Amino acid sequence: MAAGKIEKKKGHFYFGGWDTAVLAEKFGTPLYVLSEDILRARCRAIREDFLDRFENTEAVYAGKASLPLALVRLIHSEGLGLDLVSGGELHAALAAGFPLSRTILHGNSKTRTELEAALDGGVGRIVVDSLSELETLEKIAEEKDKQAAILLRVSPGVDAHTHKYILTGHTGSKFGFPLLGHSLRDAVLRAMKSERIVLKGFHFHIGSQIFENTSHVRAVEIILSAMAEFRRDLGLITEELNMGGGFGVDFDPEGITPSIRSFTDPMMDALEEGCRKEGLPRPRVIIEPGRWIVSEAGITLYRVQAMKTIEGIVTYASVDGGMTDNPRPALYGAKYWAVAAEKMDEEATETVTLAGKCCESGDILIEDLKAPPLSRGDLVAVLNTGAYTYSMASNYNRTPRPAMVLVSPGRADVIVERQTNEDLLRGEKIPDHMKLD
Ligand SMILES: Cc1ncc(COP(=O)(O)O)c(C=O)c1O
After folding, report:
1. Cα-to-centroid distance, 206 and ligand 1 (Å)
2. Which of 58, 204, 224, 414 has the most crowded Cβ, counting Cβ within 10 A?
3. Do domains 3-30+298-385+402-422 and 36-294 have the same CATH topology?
4. For ligand 1, atom 4, which residue shows the shortest CA distance?
5. Start-to-end CA span in the chain (Å)
6. pLDDT tens digits in sequence order for the chain, 437 residues long
7. How far apart are CA 20 and CA 7, in angstroms?
8. Cα(64)–Cα(125) distance, rounded to whole angstroms?
9. How far is the CA of 196 from the centre of ligand 1 (A)?
């Protein structure tokens, strides 16, 4: 979220057309807030800067970033497809009435049940990740007398500049077929021979939160040379190339999130030029952004519960949420920014560490945050939390998950209810011999 976009009125932080203090009062904290306007603006940018400028292209939203049913609906209304990665996400797409023909199923470890659900439901493309998956899928398609339209996921062997936990396209990645060795060629040959498998093309996704475009462009060049080789050696011409997502967003309010064009234009140039050189038809191109669509559309509101200063070392402001609603800082050191939402006119004279409430020293949301003097009860808004927070949330320490509200000027709808302590006991049983008399 760029600094200019932080809106304040009368000392309060406004987001999505709402005074965040009013939202906190009305819905409680911790609270995920999603701005409908920002979400739609992001979808519109993808349409105008990519889909409308290049023929034969498609954009699918990577649901792993966040998948409440209302968001699935919004994505559909904006004309994007949906990238799914589990039976649970597929179920959510169905529950929201999303046409499965416009979905893509990913995953390096799909179960038989998930593959069956994909074939039964008519998922548009299954992205096959290994030879053993291809064999299983072929068997299932045979049993069901169906055909499976697939892409083969290739790990192009490029090291994108991002954290190793969100790096996916390097040699040695658990995802996709490496270009080293012959497993990709074996899969291509098997797919070509099969009456049940329709090989539509290839897929790559090199990682997440990537800022510069050189790794994406390099991946396009690498895939192209594999495509040219398959055409030369096997006579294979594929119709589709899925270039994944991974387009980064700036978490610093002073920073600027790169435009979608800064990634897709150079990739399209490289693809068109490479296809011309190799005499290949330019395939249909699909992109799969997740974070770029939803991250800046979300904030999380917390109330400070305790202040603690360890003289000369650190001042903690501990809030009523933390790694359970946003595990990314603890998981891979993700950096966030926050504002004191009711003290926007006060000078940031203090340096505080925003700590989560979990019984875990690593539950720190933000280190060294510049803030005005804080005290118990103050409202803090962590910015840029739309992606990989709710979808990665846990119930550690039996912490109920926050509610989520979708806001636009004049409207605020709860789209995910706050969990209750009772919700957390659902499904638990005490064996008869342990029951109290
Ligand atoms: C296959 C695939 N596509 C797309 C994405 C979306 O990535 P991002 O949210 O960084 O755009 C991911 C995320 O890991 C992914 O694994």
Report:
1. 8
2. 204
3. no
4. 245
5. 57
6. 544 478 999 999 999 999 999 999 999 999 999 999 999 999 999 999 999 999 999 999 999 999 999 999 999 999 999 999 999 999 999 999 999 999 999 999 999 999 999 999 999 999 999 999 999 999 999 999 999 999 999 999 887 665 665 556 666 789 999 988 899 999 999 999 999 999 999 999 998 888 888 999 999 999 999 999 999 999 999 999 999 999 999 888 778 889 999 999 999 999 999 999 999 999 999 999 999 999 999 999 999 999 999 999 999 999 999 999 999 999 999 999 999 999 999 999 999 999 999 999 999 999 999 999 999 999 999 999 999 999 999 999 999 999 999 999 999 999 999 999 999 999 999 999 998 87
7. 11
8. 17
9. 28
In terms of CATH, what superfamily is 36-294? Answer: Alanine racemase (3.20.20.10)
Beta bridge partners of 81: 60
* Catalytic (active site) residue 359: yes
254 Cα: distance to centroid of ligand 1 (angstroms)? 25
Give every CB contact of residue 34 below 8 A, 6+ residues apart in sequence: 16, 71, 294, 297, 298, 386, 404, 405, 406, 407, 415
Note the CATH number of domain 3-30+298-385+402-422.
Answer: 2.40.37.10
Ligand 1 pocket test, pick from 42, 152, 203, 208 with the greatest ligand atom count within 8 Å of Cβ, gives 208
Ligand 1 shell residues, CB under 6 Å: 62, 64-65, 83, 106, 168, 205, 208-209, 244-247, 288-292
> Which residue among 83, 249, 392 has the greatest number of ligand 1 atoms within 8 angstroms of its CB, and so is best to mutate?
83
Which residue is associated with the tokens 């669509």?
A: 293
pTM above 0.85, yes or no: yes
Measure 315 CA to ligand 1 centroid, in angstroms: 36
